[in-house]
TrEMBL record:
Family: Belongs to the lipase chaperone family.
Topology in the lipid bilayer: Single-pass membrane protein
Protein name per Swiss-Prot or TrEMBL: Lipase chaperone
Organism expressing this protein natively: Pseudomonas leptonychotis
Pfam families per UniProt: Lipase_chap
Domain of life: Bacteria
GO molecular function, one term: unfolded protein binding
SUPFAM superfamilies to which the protein is assigned, alphabetical: Lipase chaperone-like
InterPro entries (UniProt xref): Lipase_chaperone
Length: 356
Protein backbone atom coordinates (compact mmCIF):
# COMPACT_ATOMS: atom_id res chain seq x y z
CA UNK A 1 0.00 0.00 0.00
CA UNK A 2 1.51 3.32 -1.03
CA UNK A 3 1.89 6.07 1.55
CA UNK A 4 -0.46 8.76 0.30
CA UNK A 5 0.11 12.46 0.77
CA UNK A 6 -2.92 12.67 3.07
CA UNK A 7 -1.79 9.91 5.39
CA UNK A 8 1.85 10.97 5.62
CA UNK A 9 1.26 14.69 6.10
CA UNK A 10 0.72 14.53 9.90
CA UNK A 11 3.98 12.67 10.41
CA UNK A 12 5.95 14.77 7.95
CA UNK A 13 4.77 17.84 9.80
CA UNK A 14 6.01 16.21 12.98
CA UNK A 15 9.37 15.38 11.42
CA UNK A 16 9.75 18.65 9.56
CA UNK A 17 8.59 21.06 12.24
CA UNK A 18 12.17 21.69 13.37
CA UNK A 19 13.50 22.65 9.95
CA UNK A 20 11.87 26.01 9.29
CA UNK A 21 13.99 28.74 10.90
CA UNK A 22 17.48 28.40 9.47
CA UNK A 23 18.92 31.35 11.33
CA UNK A 24 17.56 29.92 14.52
CA UNK A 25 19.94 26.97 14.31
CA UNK A 26 22.98 29.21 13.86
CA UNK A 27 23.12 30.19 17.52
CA UNK A 28 26.59 31.68 18.18
CA UNK A 29 28.46 29.70 20.81
CA UNK A 30 29.30 32.83 22.79
CA UNK A 31 25.95 34.56 22.42
CA UNK A 32 24.36 33.05 25.51
CA UNK A 33 26.47 31.53 28.28
CA UNK A 34 24.19 28.77 29.50
CA UNK A 35 24.51 27.14 32.89
CA UNK A 36 24.18 23.40 32.46
CA UNK A 37 20.93 21.91 33.71
CA UNK A 38 21.13 18.51 35.36
CA UNK A 39 19.61 15.59 33.45
CA UNK A 40 16.82 15.52 36.03
CA UNK A 41 15.97 18.95 34.61
CA UNK A 42 13.85 21.65 35.81
CA UNK A 43 14.61 21.17 39.46
CA UNK A 44 14.11 23.89 42.07
CA UNK A 45 17.10 26.16 42.46
CA UNK A 46 19.12 25.89 45.65
CA UNK A 47 18.48 29.53 46.49
CA UNK A 48 16.37 32.38 45.24
CA UNK A 49 19.44 34.38 44.22
CA UNK A 50 19.21 35.98 40.76
CA UNK A 51 20.42 33.74 37.98
CA UNK A 52 24.04 34.46 36.86
CA UNK A 53 22.68 34.45 33.31
CA UNK A 54 20.88 37.70 33.96
CA UNK A 55 24.20 39.39 34.68
CA UNK A 56 25.67 37.93 31.48
CA UNK A 57 22.82 39.10 29.23
CA UNK A 58 21.59 42.39 30.69
CA UNK A 59 19.45 43.44 27.68
CA UNK A 60 18.92 47.17 27.38
CA UNK A 61 15.19 47.56 27.81
CA UNK A 62 15.24 51.01 26.21
CA UNK A 63 16.55 49.71 22.90
CA UNK A 64 15.15 46.18 22.65
CA UNK A 65 12.02 45.93 20.54
CA UNK A 66 8.82 44.95 22.25
CA UNK A 67 7.54 41.59 20.96
CA UNK A 68 4.75 43.13 18.91
CA UNK A 69 7.23 45.43 17.14
CA UNK A 70 9.68 42.73 16.08
CA UNK A 71 9.61 42.18 12.30
CA UNK A 72 7.31 39.26 11.66
CA UNK A 73 5.45 39.69 14.95
CA UNK A 74 3.91 43.14 14.54
CA UNK A 75 0.30 43.30 15.60
CA UNK A 76 0.33 39.84 17.18
CA UNK A 77 -0.18 38.74 20.75
CA UNK A 78 2.40 36.59 22.50
CA UNK A 79 1.55 32.93 21.91
CA UNK A 80 1.89 30.44 24.71
CA UNK A 81 2.61 31.39 28.30
CA UNK A 82 5.20 31.35 31.06
CA UNK A 83 4.13 30.57 34.60
CA UNK A 84 5.71 29.63 37.88
CA UNK A 85 4.15 27.30 40.42
CA UNK A 86 3.48 28.16 44.06
CA UNK A 87 7.11 27.39 44.95
CA UNK A 88 8.43 29.71 42.25
CA UNK A 89 9.57 26.97 39.88
CA UNK A 90 8.95 26.97 36.14
CA UNK A 91 5.78 25.18 35.04
CA UNK A 92 6.41 22.72 32.22
CA UNK A 93 3.63 22.48 29.64
CA UNK A 94 2.92 22.86 25.94
CA UNK A 95 2.27 26.58 26.38
CA UNK A 96 5.94 26.96 27.31
CA UNK A 97 7.03 25.45 23.99
CA UNK A 98 4.56 27.67 22.14
CA UNK A 99 6.11 30.66 23.90
CA UNK A 100 9.63 29.69 22.78
CA UNK A 101 8.53 29.09 19.19
CA UNK A 102 6.58 32.36 19.07
CA UNK A 103 9.64 34.53 19.65
CA UNK A 104 12.02 32.36 17.66
CA UNK A 105 9.67 32.48 14.66
CA UNK A 106 10.84 36.08 14.19
CA UNK A 107 14.50 35.06 13.82
CA UNK A 108 14.43 34.99 10.02
CA UNK A 109 13.29 38.61 9.80
CA UNK A 110 14.46 40.24 13.04
CA UNK A 111 17.63 38.25 13.59
CA UNK A 112 18.31 35.58 16.16
CA UNK A 113 19.85 37.82 18.83
CA UNK A 114 17.04 40.39 18.67
CA UNK A 115 14.41 37.67 18.90
CA UNK A 116 16.05 36.03 21.91
CA UNK A 117 16.66 39.33 23.69
CA UNK A 118 13.01 40.31 23.17
CA UNK A 119 12.00 36.96 24.63
CA UNK A 120 14.20 37.46 27.68
CA UNK A 121 12.87 40.96 28.27
CA UNK A 122 9.34 39.59 28.15
CA UNK A 123 10.22 36.61 30.36
CA UNK A 124 11.71 38.89 33.04
CA UNK A 125 8.31 40.50 33.38
CA UNK A 126 6.54 37.16 33.77
CA UNK A 127 8.73 34.97 35.95
CA UNK A 128 10.28 35.23 39.40
CA UNK A 129 13.43 33.46 40.42
CA UNK A 130 14.19 30.56 40.40
CA UNK A 131 11.75 30.04 37.49
CA UNK A 132 13.53 32.65 35.35
CA UNK A 133 16.90 30.95 35.66
CA UNK A 134 15.28 27.60 34.94
CA UNK A 135 13.63 29.06 31.84
CA UNK A 136 16.95 30.38 30.51
CA UNK A 137 18.57 27.00 31.10
CA UNK A 138 15.71 25.32 29.25
CA UNK A 139 16.10 27.80 26.40
CA UNK A 140 19.71 26.69 25.97
CA UNK A 141 18.64 23.04 25.94
CA UNK A 142 15.92 23.83 23.42
CA UNK A 143 18.39 25.52 21.08
CA UNK A 144 20.83 22.62 21.31
CA UNK A 145 18.01 20.18 20.58
CA UNK A 146 16.91 22.17 17.54
CA UNK A 147 20.42 22.12 16.09
CA UNK A 148 20.77 18.39 16.62
CA UNK A 149 17.33 17.58 15.24
CA UNK A 150 18.01 19.63 12.12
CA UNK A 151 21.22 17.69 11.50
CA UNK A 152 19.32 14.44 11.99
CA UNK A 153 16.50 15.29 9.60
CA UNK A 154 18.83 16.61 6.91
CA UNK A 155 20.50 13.22 6.45
CA UNK A 156 19.99 12.19 2.80
CA UNK A 157 17.93 9.12 1.90
CA UNK A 158 19.25 6.44 -0.41
CA UNK A 159 17.31 5.26 -3.47
CA UNK A 160 16.60 1.96 -1.69
CA UNK A 161 15.05 3.80 1.26
CA UNK A 162 12.58 5.50 -1.07
CA UNK A 163 11.93 2.64 -3.47
CA UNK A 164 8.89 0.96 -1.89
CA UNK A 165 6.10 1.92 0.52
CA UNK A 166 7.53 -0.55 3.03
CA UNK A 167 10.99 1.02 2.94
CA UNK A 168 9.46 4.50 3.21
CA UNK A 169 7.57 3.42 6.31
CA UNK A 170 10.76 2.01 7.84
CA UNK A 171 12.48 5.36 7.24
CA UNK A 172 9.63 7.23 8.93
CA UNK A 173 9.64 4.85 11.90
CA UNK A 174 13.40 5.15 12.31
CA UNK A 175 13.30 8.96 12.10
CA UNK A 176 10.54 9.08 14.69
CA UNK A 177 12.48 6.90 17.14
CA UNK A 178 15.71 8.84 16.60
CA UNK A 179 13.93 12.14 17.21
CA UNK A 180 12.31 10.72 20.33
CA UNK A 181 15.68 9.56 21.67
CA UNK A 182 17.25 12.91 20.83
CA UNK A 183 14.66 14.74 22.94
CA UNK A 184 15.48 12.54 25.91
CA UNK A 185 19.16 13.32 25.54
CA UNK A 186 18.51 17.06 25.80
CA UNK A 187 15.58 17.16 28.22
CA UNK A 188 14.42 15.44 31.38
CA UNK A 189 11.57 12.95 31.15
CA UNK A 190 9.23 15.53 32.67
CA UNK A 191 10.23 18.22 30.17
CA UNK A 192 10.04 15.81 27.23
CA UNK A 193 6.53 14.74 28.16
CA UNK A 194 5.37 18.31 28.74
CA UNK A 195 6.85 19.79 25.56
CA UNK A 196 6.51 16.88 23.13
CA UNK A 197 4.19 14.31 24.69
CA UNK A 198 1.09 15.11 22.62
CA UNK A 199 3.11 15.34 19.41
CA UNK A 200 4.78 12.00 20.03
CA UNK A 201 1.46 10.33 20.88
CA UNK A 202 -0.03 11.39 17.56
CA UNK A 203 3.14 10.57 15.65
CA UNK A 204 3.19 7.07 17.12
CA UNK A 205 -0.51 6.65 16.31
CA UNK A 206 0.07 7.76 12.72
CA UNK A 207 2.97 5.34 12.22
CA UNK A 208 1.10 2.43 13.76
CA UNK A 209 -1.89 3.25 11.58
CA UNK A 210 0.24 3.29 8.41
CA UNK A 211 1.78 -0.05 9.35
CA UNK A 212 -1.68 -1.45 9.99
CA UNK A 213 -3.02 -0.33 6.62
CA UNK A 214 -0.06 -2.00 4.89
CA UNK A 215 -0.82 -5.42 6.38
CA UNK A 216 -2.08 -7.93 3.83
CA UNK A 217 -3.08 -10.52 6.42
CA UNK A 218 -6.03 -8.47 7.77
CA UNK A 219 -9.45 -7.97 6.25
CA UNK A 220 -10.94 -4.50 5.98
CA UNK A 221 -13.06 -5.26 9.03
CA UNK A 222 -10.01 -6.44 10.94
CA UNK A 223 -8.15 -3.25 10.05
CA UNK A 224 -11.10 -1.13 11.15
CA UNK A 225 -11.22 -2.87 14.53
CA UNK A 226 -7.46 -2.49 14.96
CA UNK A 227 -7.76 1.21 14.09
CA UNK A 228 -10.35 1.62 16.84
CA UNK A 229 -7.94 0.07 19.34
CA UNK A 230 -5.16 2.41 18.23
CA UNK A 231 -7.46 5.42 18.46
CA UNK A 232 -8.50 4.44 21.98
CA UNK A 233 -4.86 4.81 23.10
CA UNK A 234 -4.73 8.50 22.14
CA UNK A 235 -5.19 11.23 24.76
CA UNK A 236 -8.86 12.12 25.15
CA UNK A 237 -8.81 15.47 23.32
CA UNK A 238 -6.73 14.06 20.50
CA UNK A 239 -8.94 11.00 20.26
CA UNK A 240 -12.05 13.15 19.89
CA UNK A 241 -10.39 15.16 17.12
CA UNK A 242 -9.26 12.00 15.33
CA UNK A 243 -12.74 10.51 15.58
CA UNK A 244 -14.21 13.64 14.00
CA UNK A 245 -11.67 13.45 11.20
CA UNK A 246 -12.40 9.76 10.63
CA UNK A 247 -16.13 10.47 10.53
CA UNK A 248 -15.62 13.31 8.06
CA UNK A 249 -13.40 11.15 5.86
CA UNK A 250 -15.93 8.30 5.85
CA UNK A 251 -18.69 10.71 4.90
CA UNK A 252 -16.54 12.18 2.16
CA UNK A 253 -15.93 8.69 0.75
CA UNK A 254 -19.67 8.01 0.86
CA UNK A 255 -20.40 11.28 -0.94
CA UNK A 256 -17.81 10.53 -3.61
CA UNK A 257 -19.36 7.11 -4.18
CA UNK A 258 -22.77 8.72 -4.62
CA UNK A 259 -21.38 11.17 -7.19
CA UNK A 260 -19.75 8.34 -9.10
CA UNK A 261 -23.01 6.40 -9.11
CA UNK A 262 -24.78 9.37 -10.68
CA UNK A 263 -26.62 10.66 -7.61
CA UNK A 264 -28.10 14.13 -7.76
CA UNK A 265 -26.85 16.98 -5.63
CA UNK A 266 -30.04 16.82 -3.62
CA UNK A 267 -29.39 13.18 -2.76
CA UNK A 268 -25.89 14.01 -1.58
CA UNK A 269 -27.29 16.94 0.40
CA UNK A 270 -29.69 14.61 2.22
CA UNK A 271 -26.85 12.29 3.21
CA UNK A 272 -24.70 15.15 4.50
CA UNK A 273 -27.67 16.60 6.40
CA UNK A 274 -27.75 13.50 8.59
CA UNK A 275 -24.49 14.66 10.18
CA UNK A 276 -24.05 18.39 9.57
CA UNK A 277 -26.08 21.57 10.00
CA UNK A 278 -27.42 23.34 6.85
CA UNK A 279 -24.58 25.92 6.49
CA UNK A 280 -21.96 23.19 6.76
CA UNK A 281 -23.85 21.02 4.26
CA UNK A 282 -23.87 23.84 1.71
CA UNK A 283 -20.19 24.55 2.29
CA UNK A 284 -19.28 20.90 1.78
CA UNK A 285 -21.40 20.69 -1.35
CA UNK A 286 -19.65 23.75 -2.74
CA UNK A 287 -16.22 22.26 -1.97
CA UNK A 288 -17.18 18.95 -3.58
CA UNK A 289 -18.57 20.75 -6.62
CA UNK A 290 -15.33 22.72 -7.03
CA UNK A 291 -13.22 19.61 -6.54
CA UNK A 292 -15.14 17.64 -9.17
CA UNK A 293 -14.75 20.53 -11.62
CA UNK A 294 -11.01 20.64 -10.92
CA UNK A 295 -10.62 16.90 -11.47
CA UNK A 296 -12.45 17.20 -14.77
CA UNK A 297 -10.08 19.98 -15.86
CA UNK A 298 -7.11 17.84 -14.89
CA UNK A 299 -8.48 14.90 -16.90
CA UNK A 300 -8.80 17.21 -19.91
CA UNK A 301 -5.27 18.45 -19.31
CA UNK A 302 -3.93 14.88 -19.24
CA UNK A 303 -5.67 14.05 -22.52
CA UNK A 304 -4.24 17.10 -24.29
CA UNK A 305 -0.83 16.45 -22.74
CA UNK A 306 -0.84 12.90 -24.09
CA UNK A 307 -1.53 14.33 -27.53
CA UNK A 308 1.47 16.64 -27.22
CA UNK A 309 3.75 13.78 -26.26
CA UNK A 310 2.81 11.83 -29.35
CA UNK A 311 3.22 14.50 -32.01
CA UNK A 312 7.01 14.37 -32.43
CA UNK A 313 7.93 17.57 -30.59
CA UNK A 314 11.36 17.89 -29.02
CA UNK A 315 11.61 17.67 -25.23
CA UNK A 316 12.09 21.43 -24.92
CA UNK A 317 9.08 22.16 -27.15
CA UNK A 318 6.96 19.67 -25.21
CA UNK A 319 7.85 21.41 -21.95
CA UNK A 320 6.92 24.82 -23.37
CA UNK A 321 3.60 23.52 -24.71
CA UNK A 322 2.88 21.77 -21.41
CA UNK A 323 3.43 25.05 -19.55
CA UNK A 324 1.07 26.87 -21.93
CA UNK A 325 -1.50 24.14 -21.39
CA UNK A 326 -1.26 24.50 -17.61
CA UNK A 327 -1.67 28.26 -17.83
CA UNK A 328 -4.70 27.94 -20.09
CA UNK A 329 -6.58 25.39 -17.99
CA UNK A 330 -5.59 26.34 -14.44
CA UNK A 331 -5.34 29.44 -12.31
CA UNK A 332 -2.07 30.63 -10.82
CA UNK A 333 -3.16 29.25 -7.44
CA UNK A 334 -3.58 25.78 -8.98
CA UNK A 335 -0.19 25.58 -10.69
CA UNK A 336 1.62 23.98 -7.75
CA UNK A 337 -1.10 21.38 -7.37
CA UNK A 338 -0.88 20.49 -11.07
CA UNK A 339 2.90 20.15 -10.79
CA UNK A 340 2.45 17.85 -7.79
CA UNK A 341 -0.08 15.68 -9.62
CA UNK A 342 2.21 15.52 -12.65
CA UNK A 343 5.17 14.48 -10.47
CA UNK A 344 3.12 11.72 -8.83
CA UNK A 345 1.90 10.49 -12.23
CA UNK A 346 5.45 10.45 -13.59
CA UNK A 347 6.70 8.53 -10.56
CA UNK A 348 3.93 5.96 -10.92
CA UNK A 349 4.72 5.58 -14.61
CA UNK A 350 8.44 5.12 -13.91
CA UNK A 351 7.69 2.46 -11.31
CA UNK A 352 5.66 0.35 -13.73
CA UNK A 353 7.61 -2.58 -15.23
CA UNK A 354 8.52 -2.06 -18.85
CA UNK A 355 7.00 -4.37 -21.40
CA UNK A 356 9.28 -6.92 -23.03
Amino acid sequence: MALSLRTTVPLLVLAGSVVGLTLYWQWPAAALPVVAVAPGAIAPAVSAAPSPLLHAIKPNQTTINEPVSLPGLQGTEVDGDLKADSAGNLQLNLALRDYLDYFLSAADQAGLEASVEAMLVDARGRLPEPALGQFIGLLGDYMDYKRASLALLQQPLSAAQQSTPQSQLIVLQRAFEQLSQLRRVHFSNAATEALFGAEEAYGRYTLDNLALMARADLSEQGKALAQERLRAQLPEAMRASEERQAQAQALNIQSEKLWQEGASEEQVRQVLALTYDPPTVERLLSEQRNERAWQQRYATYQQELAGLQGNGLSTADQQREQQRLRQRLFSAEDQHRVETYDAIAAKEQDSQPSEL
